[in-house]
Amino acid sequence: MLELRGSDAIVRDSLAALVAAGLVATTEGRSRYQPRTASLGQVAEKLAQAYERQPNAVMKAIAAAPDSRIQTFADAFRFKR
Description:
Structural class: mainly alpha
Helix content: 55-70%
Number of strands: 2
């Protein structure tokens, strides 16, 4: 089970950012992964594959990004062990 460790505001803002980026669709209060274009879906798939192979490298790239909101979003989806 996935437990979010971010506040409601962080999760809400992050979800809105994913919708704006074209990665998530929201209807009737429910959200789901749905890339707006096939090429965007391919990029997301390549990122997921890179994360499977080298999670630390992907996390370092996120942490090094100039926009701290990306890090805040990533932190919201850490798994509780």
